[in-house]
Structure formats: C-alpha cells, structure tokens
Amino acid sequence: MTTEQPIIETKEATIQFNDLIAVDGVNFTMKEGEAIGVIGPNGAGKTSFFNLLTGLFFPTGGKIFFSGKDITTVPPHKRVAMGIVRTFQLVSVFDSLPVVDNLILSTNRISPDHESRGAFFFGDAHRQNKVEQCMDALKLMGIENKAHLMTSELSYGDKRKLELAVALSLNPKILLLDEPFAGLSDMEIGEVSQIIREVKKKFSFVIIEHKISHIIDLVQRLCVMHEGKLIAEGPPAEVLCNAIVREVYWGKEEGLTCSV
Amino acid sequence: MINTIAYGLTIGGILYIISIGLSLTFGTMRIVNFAHGLIYTIGAYFLITLLPIARDNFILGAVLAVLAVVPISYIIERFVVRKLYGVSIDYAIIATYAVVLIGVDLIKWIWGASPIPLSDPVGIDVAFLGITLPLYRLIIILLAVVIFIGLSIFFKKTMVGKIVTAALEDKDAVRSLGINVDKYFAYIFVMGSSLAALGGVLYAPITSVHPYMGSMVLLLSFAVVLVGGLGNIKGTFVAAFALGMVMSVTGRLWGPAAETMVFVVMGIVLIFKPIEV
Asked: Which end of chain A is more exposed for a tag (fewer CB within 10 A), N or C?
C-alpha cells in the first residue's frame, strides 16, 4: 500500500493576473498522511496557491496532479468529490442559514441511495437522517447545542469551528486550512489546534499560517513562499535556520529562533 | 381611491412576478440580464399563438406559453449567460442586450410590429365597497401572493433553495462544498425566466402585445430589484407592491410622471442603501 505516489503534486504551477504573478512556477509534492505548513509574508501567494489546488483558479501555466491524475482543469466541485477540501482565510460559513444547514449542504454530494435525486434536491432538506449525520459533526466541535441558531448569531470562534466541522464532514483525503487561527483568541486557538491534532492522523493536511509558533508542532514540513515562489522547504527546524527565510522574516516574529 | 389602490396592487403583482427572476439572477450570478424583458415579451406572444390551439382556454394557453419559454430560456442560459459568470458586469449587459435585439427582430419577423390587443380572459367584474373591479386583476394579485409564499417555502425548505441562498452569500464557499453551483444557477435562471413569461402572459390582456413591451417593464423591474435588495425574496415582494402603488398614485395625480416617480424612489433608496455590485 505504501506507494511513493504523491497525493498532491504541482509542476511549475503559475498564475498570473495581468502584471501580477501571484504564484510563480511552484513545484510542490506531498506524500499521503503528511502534514505541511505553508508560511510566508502577506501577499506571498499562499492563498492563491490554495486556489490553484482547489480549482477556484485555473493555473496560467504548469500542471497539478492528485494521486497521479492530472487535475489541472478539473472544476472545484469535482475536486471536493475526489477529497480535496479546504477552509477559507475569511471564515466562509453561511450567515443566512441555520447552523445545522451549513452541514446539510455538505451532505449534498452524498446523495443517499434510497431516494431519487429529485426527491433529494427538491424535497425537505431537514429529513431526520441528514440532521443526525450533521449533529455528530457538530458534537466533535462541541457546538451541538447551537445547531438551530442562525449562523449569524455564532461567535467568530464558533464559526471557525463550524467551518472545520463542515470541512471534516466532506470526507477529505487532503485538507487545506487557510489561516484557521486568524481572528481567534488564545483560548480558541488552543481549542482549534487541539481539534486539528485529533483529526490530523486521518488524512493529509496543509495549513497556511502567519505565526509560525502556532503550527510548528502540528506539521512535519514547512514550505516558505515569498513573492509567489516557493523559496524553501524542509523540516521546521531546518527551514527556520535557512538564511533566505530568516531574511524574509527578519524581525517579523518574536521568538523565531534557530536552534541549530 | 380604492380603484387606484387596486390598480397599484395589480401592477405590483405583475412587477413582483417579473422581478423575482431578475433579482435572483442578479443576486446569485451578478448578471444584469436584459434578456429578461425579452422573455416577458415572448411569453405574451406565445400566448397569442397558443390560445387558438388551446381553444381559447386562457389557463391552458397560459400554461403552454410558459412551458414553451422554458427551452428558449435554457438556450439563452446555456449559450450566453453561462459564459458570463464571473466576468465583468458590462459584458453581461452587452451580451444580453444583443440577445434582446436579435429577439425583438425575430418577433417582428414572426408576428409583425403592430400591437395585438387581447381581451380580458375572465370578463367578470366584482363589486365591493361601492366600486367595481375586473375579477382578472384580483386573480393576478392573488397569484403574486401565492407565488411569493411558494418561493419562500421553496427557499427555506429544499436543498436547491438552500444552495441558492448560500450562493447568494458566497459562491466559492458553495463550490468548496463540492456543489456544482452553475447547475443550480441554470435551474434558477429557467425558473425566473418562466415567471417573467408568466408576467407577460398575465399582463397581455391588460395592455396590448407589441415587440417592445418588455423594455419599460424591464426598467421598472430593475427598480424593484434595486429597492428590494438583490436576491431578497421578501424585499422584492414588498418593493414590487410599493412601487406599483407609487405608479398608480402618481398616475392618478399626474399621468406622465407615473413611471418617472418609480425611478425617483429608486434613486432615493439607493442614496440611503447603496448596493455593491
């Protein structure tokens, strides 16, 4: 079973918007079960890179492979069905729906066998079996008692947890988290990283973060992006001692120490 | 006065039925769809053609006319509108306006340019509170309310409704749930177009049917959509009846200002509640 086939791989992945090259010839490989952190200053192209992996943008150059299959032009919803799931930097739950409905939408792609597609899509969305599935996901995050509130009434931290619950319920093979700690209090950061620690054994994941200290003990490998390019990668301790990385990050984060 | 109110409600009802589709396409897809007015016009012309086939049974003729519009609106969605998702809004205006120009010329080619009158299909007046009103107008008002309730339930209860509600907030987030958003946009587009056609069918006996009947209605519908809020089912309903009332009251005081007043109200609303496109 242990093939060396990378779960995700990009070859010279590039995206250019007019004069701006947001992602510039990135070669990235990730083995199954790996946990990778992507760091870099604002505007380094981290989120654009996620958008390429998830298909929200198609690259203007290069190729993207998932389990050896070329997915460069596969639309986003099909990539989710393959198991590429993401969260967003700006929390992306739906304020105008009840909390539980956010999860009901994510059960959409698993249309149950015992009802026709028409009944599934045009029938009552709140059927018991669906709601039960969703409650399990909410329990994992400890927000099951808020299931029937409107999403807009949730605190920012709870929205983050809901977003994570939605992502997990999509059965990811690879989970892409875009700054999951942004805007959270220290206590909430602790809770969310605990949840990530618990679930991360089940699949591969990539996490974008500004603050290296938040992810240093969650990931096995760090990738550093700067001006659209992947400038360094390797085990965290090694990457943090890299001279170029230190230059890019110099003075930007307290406590960024090189232990070698 | 009661007559003025009844007239305002009729206009409001028609405006609601037409505007809701425009509001949903504008709200979800950020597409300014000029072809919406053309669909309204085509609905009315189909009614004229299909009435004799339906042996002058208005309800049957109306249903057939609306059904006949479905493939046409699907073609417009599939080959024009779908190419406009995510591109700048001006392309949508130009492309759908081109569809209108082609469509209007086709209508003139098939049915001719002169107005075709149509008589009141019910032909019964009801008297209450000392005034008489055509029953047909009351039916229109009632139908608008029924459609509003039906759509509200649809959007609250069904999966498709929830997908569209979510897409109104954030399309990319819906895509990231593994949902093919464009497919549901197509459903919504066809549904909205069918309602526009129904609006044309219902209004045909009140006005006369001519190739340009859609243009003023389209502008009024845009006013309704902007006042009611993009993609806002309830807001569109309230705005349609409010602006219908503005039209009828202004029309009673000074006829030529009736339609202008609608846009004045729209302007005032936009000053206090600007929209982001």
From this structure: N
Closest chain A residue to B164, measured at CA: A105
Residue A153: which residues within 8 A CB-CB, separation 6 or more? Answer: A146
**Residues B48, B204 contacting (CB under 8 angstroms):** yes
pLDDT above 70 for A152: yes
Is residue B277, in this structure, part of any structural domain at all? no
DSSP state at residue A201: G
pTM of the shown model: 0.81
Long-range CB contacts (within 8 A, 24+) of B119-128: B119/B205, B120/B205, B120/B206, B121/B58, B121/B205, B122/B58
Write the pLDDT tens digit of every residue in B243-271: 999 999 998 888 888 888 889 889 998 88
Q: Collapse the DSSP code of A13 into the 3-class scheme (helix H, G, I; strand E, B; otherwise coil) and give the result.
A: strand
What is the tally of structural domains in chain B? 1
Check B173 against A94: CB less than 8 A apart.
Answer: yes
* CATH numbers and ranges of domains, chain A: 8-93+172-249 (3.40.50.300), 94-153 (no CATH)
* DSSP of B162-213: HHHHHHHH-HHHHHTTT--HHHHHHHHHHHHHHHHHHHHHHHTTTS-B-TTH
